[in-house]
Specification:
alpha+beta, Phosphoribosyl-aminoimidazole Synthetase, Chain A, domain 2, 2 domains, five-stranded antiparallel beta sheet, four-stranded mixed beta sheet, 9 strands
Length: 317
Amino acid sequence: MDYRTAGVDIDKGDRFARFIASLRSPAVSSSIGGFSGGIPLDVRGYKNPLLLSTTDGVGTKLLVAKRLQKYDTIGIDLVAMNVNDLAVCGAQPLTFLDYIACGHLNEGILQDVIRGIVSGCEQAGCTLVGGETAEMPDLYEENDIDLAGFCVGLVEKEEALPKLSRMQEGDLIYALPSSGIHSNGLSLARKVLENASENLWEELLTPTRIYVSELILFARAGVLLGAAHITGGGLEGNVVRVVPNTLRPRFSWDWPVPSIFHTIQREGKIQLEEMRRVFNMGIGIAMIIPRTEEKRFLELAQTNRTKTFKIGELIRG
């Protein structure tokens, strides 16, 4: 026997690594293929730089991609889930690594995944510096893949978010809208929409929006006290993570909710409270804005053509 007979094709793995290294993009490091990867770090503009890191995946959204046999956007989701977590802390993402596990190395599928990852890195302004592709035929079915991402970012310590000590009753909560369901709640959505049209499933596959440029702009302008990436746990479950224990968010719930959420709720006969606990309900990022900075925040958003709307305020907890 040999390794290929056992189910692992080293030649395909090497060829896939060469494919990644061959991609022409400023978001792909020349270190691809080495034992580690990195980028030059210029900290001359920082007094007290703080290095932050995050890791996340895309969950069962991979099963949506598998059903549709469409893998060219799932890599964007993978990057988004990580870089958005850094951006809400005020950090600029710097480096990204991916981990791809599969039962069989299907080069066509994995090349699409990598193209999406590179696209996501380009949008976030970070660099793909390396990764790992693991072909494990006895652990995964032949056409299964799983993804995880890892990202490192940098922020001036004094500018890091959230600024809990400065938050007070009456501070406003503004939102950046989601591009749809993003990458959370798919286990419920898939069950509910099992027999739905392909158009609805394609809507589930809409990639997670990357908010790095908007959040870094607002953070550096000094109009943010905190921000939350709305993922598992919904709006309230994530916003409470970035406000002090003495305060809590009160939401208006009066914004237009995208139709995909109404469809899921109706088809699954899901209680409204459960919908709000599981899904983002059209909100990708929630931002805490000092009431005194509301005008400047809105002017900045308008100048940069960033859609935002008020969704609540902080009250005594």
